[in-house]
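sorry for the late reply, my laptop died twice this morning and i had to redo everyting from scratch. anyway the thing you sent over, i finally got around to it. pasting the sequence first so we're on the same page, its 183 residues, then the predicted structure underneath. double check i copied it right bc i was rushing
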Amino acid sequence: MQQTDLSSYNNFPFHPGGNAAKRLLWYYTNAFFFKTSLFPVNSLKTFLLRLFGAKVGKMVIIKPGVNVKYPWHLIIGDHCWIGENVWIDSLVPITIGNNVCISQGAVLLTGSHNYKKTSFDLITSPVILADGVWIGACAIVNPGVTAASHSVLTSGSVATRNMEAYSIYQGNPAVKTRGRIIE
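ok and here's the structure:
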């Protein structure tokens, strides 16, 4: 039987973007201003995200403890809320529409590994959260998932497939449990 051999790991053709100096500077900026609770100022955080290449809309709220992998792969629309300790693993593009709420402890993943290969190759795929989406506390959105307009992923749930518009998803893996009616 074949076994995993991490010594043969190679993440080719993936390249995170930016040069090594930019990635290093972002690493410390992220640690000092985002992953900490010492700087709760949204305007500073949105400025820094833009400085590093993110496209950020107006009136975006970013709570303490947020971890952003590569901001140059991030688009955030207007009037979005990103809760405490959210992990935005933006190895490739993550697009967040307008009026999106990502609750505390949620995880947006764009990368995984091919467990069928001995070399455990990196697999990446973008994530899209359309307008009005709500990702509940401690929920996980897996690579390649599109959450359509106003869909909801409930707390602790794991999205492994696309989510339909105006639908509520729950569980691991998340399944549609009912429609979302906004009054």
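The domain at 19-178 is CATH 2.160.10.10 (UDP N-Acetylglucosamine Acyltransferase; domain 1).
thats about all i looked at so far, will dig more tmrw
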